[in-house]
Amino acid sequence: MPKITFIEDDGTEHAVEAGADASVMQAAMDNLVPGIVAECGGYANCATCHVYIDPAWADKLPAPEEAEEVMIEAAFDVRPTSRLSCQVQVTEDTDGLIVRLPASQTGA
């Protein structure tokens, strides 16, 4: 199973295993990673699963689609590697993915 490391704004790490058919958001939810609210359930209709993809991984993932880009603009503290975790699919190629959680997501 691919492993994903979520890093909170305060540096707390959560290393989880995820099914290859899950989204990064679902992997976080299944493993009780704080800061991923996912109010819309994974349909890119909110930005409550906003994350920063580690720069070493940003170019290895498919580019966001237009709907995701529009919704990311509604998030707080948007950065070049901002993504909606519900739109990032876990695959065997994402084994080792590092995702950082914005302070606005974790209440820090």
From TrEMBL:
Signal peptide: none annotated. Its cofactor is [2Fe-2S] cluster. It comes from the Bacteria. Transmembrane segments: none annotated. InterPro entries: 2Fe-2S_ferredoxin-like_sf, 2Fe-2S_ferredoxin-type, Adrenodoxin-like, Beta-grasp_dom_sf. GO terms for molecular function: 2 iron, 2 sulfur cluster binding; electron transfer activity; metal ion binding. Pfam families: Fer2. Residues 2-105 form the 2Fe-2S ferredoxin-type domain. One of its GO terms (biological process) is P450-containing electron transport chain. Keywords: 2Fe-2S, Iron, Iron-sulfur, Metal-binding. GO terms for cellular component: cytosol. PANTHER family: FERREDOXIN-2, MITOCHONDRIAL, FERREDOXIN/ADRENODOXIN. Belongs to the adrenodoxin/putidaredoxin family. This is (2Fe-2S)-binding protein. It comes from Streptomyces coeruleorubidus.
